[in-house]
Amino acid sequence: FAHECATCQTAPDGRVVVYSGDDTESEHLYKFISAKPGSLESGQLFVASLTERRCIPLNWQEDSRLKKAFSDKTEMLIRTREAAKLVGATPLDRPEDIEIDPVSRAIFVSLTNNKKNDNHFGSLMKIVEKDNNPLNLEFDSYTFLAGGPETGFACPDNLAFDAKGNLWMCTDMSGSAMGEAPYEKYGNNGLFFIPLSGPHAGVAVQVASAPRGAEITGPCFSPDGKTLFLSIQHPGERG
Fold first, then answer.
1. Distance CA 127, CA 184 (A)
2. pLDDT the model gives residue 4
3. Pairing with 118, which of 26, 56, 91, 93 sits 20 to 30 Å away (CA)?
4. Predicted local distance difference test score (pLDDT) of residue 3
5. Contacts of 120 (CB under 8 A, 6+ apart)
């Protein structure tokens, strides 16, 4: 399980909910709900099924399929991918970063790409949990924005929201693929601004370009919203 992120929010009753992506082709989206308020010491892990529109518990003690496949709970949690497939989780296109819209409380997931399925450009997925309550296991999901020639970006990765609810997105074309088909038109990796309201809602506008061979990661705003911090990862990696 390639833990790409761990995005937390506090539920109405004080328990902690953690969303996590698995950065590998055709892997899954996970959700952990803590057992006690303000603590991550114990709780329940779930995995998302988009077809069933719910999060399925990975409960070794109560699921006979899991009990048959794994000797104990620890083995199941080490071999998480196998457990997720056994219970019917939906394969996704490299789920990487996950962020929560501060205005709508919707969950945004960057699906970077899945070249095995001929998806080279990836997409942004939006999840709306029932009643906007992170403790609910039911949800609706849809593609918010697909990468490609029409939107002008490829391979979405790290995300951040500013205080006004605008989405900022970094892209992650691999160093070996930049400038090669089908990425010839996209140049270097970039930073994109996507307003979620107003006349240009849902339009991705590039505002920065990474150095050659690099990707921009970890976007983070200062508390006053005037400064955006970015990491420049592996510049000149192959040059």
1. 31
2. 86
3. 56
4. 87
5. 113, 154, 182, 183
pLDDT along the chain (239 residues), means of 10: 92 97 96 97 98 98 97 96 98 97 96 95 98 97 97 97 96 91 94 97 96 94 95 91
Q: What angle do CA 222, 2, 45 make, to 5 degrees?
A: 85
Two tokens, residue 30 = 């996970």
Unique residue bearing structure tokens 């988009």: 50
The pLDDT value recorded for residue 132 is 95
Looking up tokens 């709508």 gives 104
Tokens of 42: 């114990």
The pLDDT score that the predictor gives to residue 238 is 84
User: How big is the chain, counted in residues?
Assistant: 239
Within 10 Å of residue 64's Cβ, how many Cβ atoms? 7
Instruction: Give the per-residue SS3 of 9-31.
Output: EECCCCEEEEEEEECCEEECEEE
pTM flag (> 0.90) = yes
**What secondary structure does DSSP assign to the chain, as a single string?**
--B---EEEE-TTSEEEEEEEB-SEEE-EEEEEEEEET--SSEEEEEEETTTTEEEE--TTT-HHHHHH-SSHHHHHHTHHHHHHHTTPPPEE-EEEEEE-TTT--EEEEE--BGGGTB-S-EEEEEEEGGG-TT--BEEEEEEEE-BTTTTB-SEEEEEE-TTS-EEEEE---TTTTTSTT-GGG-S-EEEEE-SSSTTTT--EEEEEPPTT-EEEEEEE-TTSS-EEEEEESTTTT-
> Six-digit token pair at 159?
């995300």
As a whole number of angstroms, the distance between CA 111 and CA 24 comes to 10
Q: Token digits for 177?
A: 């693929």
- The structure tokens listed for 139 are 């949800």
